Amino acid sequence: MGSDSAKQKQEIxxxxxxxxxxxxxxxxxxxxxxxxxxYIADFEDSYQATQRxxxxxxxxxxxxIFVTPDRSTQLARETAIKEGxxxxxxxxxxxxxxxxxxxxxxxxGQEAFxxxxxxxxxxxxxxxxxxxxxxxxxxxxMLTGALAISRAHGGRTGKGAGxxxxxxxxxxxxxxxxxxxxxxxxxxxxQVVNDTFSLAPWDALVGTIVxxxxxxxxxxxxxxxxxxxEVITPDxxxxxxxxxxxxxxxxxxx
Length: 254
Prior knowledge:
FTHF_cligase; FTHF_cligase-like_sf; Rossmann fold; 10 helices; globular; alpha/beta; NagB/RpiA_transferase-like; 5-formyltetrahydrofolate cyclo-ligase; 8-stranded mixed beta sheet
């Protein structure tokens, strides 16, 4: 199943990438330009998508939101700070854990900068260990960007490294989410696909898709509850200290 899923996702990534580039929908990154296999791009009309997002009940009732460090979620991060919400954002590659941004950490007028990756390095509180993250508190909702999301079952694909799948299950294992924690994806309309690609058992699913023109609900499906250690390579594991901590907790030395 994992092999079939990976192949199908790659085909979808290639198709959606062509649409984003040919229609000039993707916003160039200052570092990666338009190499969409290196980052989750912001997109044209993301302001309208963010406006739809912040009017969702899931957003409005949330105090603390997990947000991926994608370009497409940057405006949502800025808005969350202005609204007084707390946001937890993973560092690039999760290699230094996550950071916590709260209203009191960000000077007035610096919200837009604080929402950037550079701004978070300056203003946010680092959460480098499992205990740090747990002390930051439970997550009320999760927001992710994506390269594509299936409206058929909420499966998503990004750069292909499995970062959001890892983020979902790590926060679940740390006791900071529950099976029904809302997962919201923010994408352009062309990134919503009807393809029903195979899902791997570790795939984290999106329940609500927000685009510049609409809000879509996907069928309710069970989120992953276990870490599939057998599919994680040693190099990948050792690059993520939080995952190493969780591995040692589940596999104590004799």
